[in-house]
Design goal:
binds ligand LP7C6HRI, binds potassium ion, 10-stranded mixed beta sheet, UDP-N-acetylmuramoyl-L-alanine:D-glutamate ligase, single chain, 39% helix, 2 domains, 17 strands, 511 residues
């Protein structure tokens, strides 16, 4: 699904009005009625106090339409007009008049702190103050109102966007932003819904298709995509009936050191669980018995080093090499990586200590085979590209790095971002249970396996990140977040692949 900017959405809006020959008021009615339907489906007429805070633009207009429908269906609604300006939009005004037809309770005007209402636990608050039209941070008494709402412990539903969030920048540390429990957003997800600095304001997310012009939307240029089941399925290559193990790639996994041999076991297990035809491991001697016993399906080659990697078998060929898990950063191991890079042309996946070695030995970056995949977590990323001012700056810097070295970068996080030159893919599977030791080792095994099976590295990264998250979701659904171990993620990769073909769960319902 494409992620669109406020400007692109405003254009889609304009084209839709022309092509469908409708007024903007009619489009507002359509959009806000969809919101009403969602609320009504969930509340089923429950007599709870609903407090709707409307701005004076079109987001406020949406709030007024929602209010009208709720009142007509017998809900207990109080409408507040948050009068931060006198420049009310036409569609706001039209719906202000229409509200008169259904209630005698005139909206209460809020112009200053003294006008603030009481908000109680158990209230249902609808935030329709600002949407994509926010053009400066919320300050002054308006910020106090946002704080009052946030502190109230009421359930908060944000319309289109939590008020205070911009679609294309970070609000800043002292800016006020609504912290919603749920966000119903129109037509397309916004980038800020998925960034570490802003995702916590969104709560659960659902995207409503408000019927903006299909042709315009499919032609619109966006280089940022949200990846859910549908997108992952479109990348998947089915196995052929008439095939043998030689068709599914030979993955070589290089890593491990004394006390960290388990990481290689996790990576190798997940590579085989993702379907590699063959999997070889290159490790220090001390791990030989553990790996042969722990994973009889893998072939094990040992380095001369007892406890550390110090070389690379020069005559070894494979379809993909995965380097770094548990490898440490000793000088011998740096040289082993150099030897590997000088002797391999197959695409690589570099993780963990492999990334730390690259950060400290930057000349090695130029030796990486083009289109290799790097999978840093934020700490490793910082060492690799330097610090960033905010999440938008981070994305720019990762894009520069990806372009400069011709690499695909998977920035791991609650929503992992796969960045390949100009394109950004935001993953929408996974859960907090996956924040556990070895989870990243499993991810690099999935991606390496897919590359070995002939997927383009960027497709392998995007599909691999989705499958990894989905396997984590399956594991968590069985045993709960806290108990998910990296091994449980690896165990469920097969089910995650099968689930690609299940009736789709709407990605928009996940955040
Ligand atoms: N195509 C769609 O997606 C549809 C969107 N709809 C809704 O319309 C809003 C956007 O409405 P707009 O009037 O452009 O902007 P806002 O309501 O978000 O803001 C109003 C107004 O406020 C001024 N302003 C901005 N920042 C501040 C500030 N910090 N303090 C005070 N005043 C500020 C500025 O002048 C804005 O114009 C969209 O989100 C949807 O909810 C349609 O209803 C359906 C189609
Ligand atoms: K809002």
């Amino acid at each position: 699904m494409k992620i669109l900017t406020a400007k692109q959405l405003a254009n889609a809006d304009k084209v839709t009005l022309e092509k469908q020959d409708i007024t903007s008021e009619e489009l507002m009615e359509r959009a806000a009625t969809l919101v009403f339907n969602e609320i009504h489906n969930r509340l089923q007429g429950a007599p709870i106090p609903i407090k709707i805070f409307c701005g004076i633009g079109n987001n406020g207009g949406d709030g007024l339409v929602i209010a009208r429908h709720l009142i007509q269906h017998g809900y207990h609604v109080t409408v507040f007009v948050v009068n931060y300006s006198d420049k009310r939009s036409d569609d706001f005004l039209a719906n202000y008049d229409k509200l008169k037809e259904v209630t005698r309770d005139w909206p209460q005007l809020i112009k200053k702190t003294d006008d603030f209402p009481e908000i109680n636990t158990g209230d249902f608050v609808i935030d329709a103050m600002f949407g994509i039209g926010l053009n400066r941070p919320i300050k002054g008494w308006l910020a106090d109102l946002v704080e009052l709402i946030n502190k109230s412990q009421a359930f908060i539903l944000a319309i289109d966007m939590p008020s205070g969030l911009f679609s294309d920048k970070i609000p800043g540390n002292d800016a006020a932003v609504i912290k919603a429990n749920f966000t119903l957003s129109f037509q397309a997800p916004k980038l800020v819904f998925f960034l570490p600095e802003t995702m916590d304001y969104v709560g659960d997310l659902q995207i409503l298709d408000i019927g903006l012009d299909r042709e315009f939307l499919s032609n619109i240029q966006s280089k940022v995509y949200l990846v859910g089941q549908e997108e992952a399925l479109s990348l998947y290559k089915p196995r052929k009936a008439n095939s043998h193990k030689g068709d599914y790639g030979h993955a070589l996994i290089v890593g491990g050191s004394y006390g960290k041999i388990g990481s290689v076991l996790l990576t190798a297990t997940s590579a085989l669980k993702t379907g590699s035809g063959l999997c070889s491991l290159y490790i220090p001697k001390c791990g030989y018995h553990a790996l042969q016993t722990g994973l009889p399906e893998a072939m094990v080659l040992t380095d001369e080093g007892e406890e550390l990697l110090s070389s690379f078998p020069a005559d070894f060929t494979s379809d993909v090499v995965c380097f770094g898990m548990g490898a440490g950063t000793a000088n011998e191991t740096v040289e082993a990586l150099r030897e590997l890079l000088e002797n391999t042309n197959s695409p690589m996946v570099i993780d963990a200590d492999g990334l730390n070695i690259l950060s400290k030995n930057r000349d090695l970056l130029n030796l990486l085979p083009k289109n290799s995949v790097l999978t840093p977590h934020p700490g490793e990323l910082k060492r690799l590209i330097g610090d960033w001012a905010d999440d938008f700056d981070k994305l720019e810097k990762v894009r520069d790095f990806s372009r400069k070295y011709g690499l695909t970068i998977v920035v791991k996080g609650a929503h992992s971002f796969t960045i390949d030159r100009e394109e950004t893919y935001i993953n929408n599977s996974g859960n907090p249970g996956m924040a556990t030791a070895g989870s990243g080792d499993v991810l690099s095994g999935v991606i390496a396996s897919l590359i070995g099976q002939g997927y383009e590295p960027v497709s392998a990264a995007v599909l691999g990140v989705f499958l990894h998250g989905s396997a984590g979701d399956i594991a968590a659904s069985k045993i709960g977040y806290e108990s998910v171990l990296a091994g449980d993620i690896a165990k469920n990769i097969g089910k995650a692949i099968r689930d690609l073909f299940q009736e789709p769960v709407h990605d928009s319902e996940k955040n």
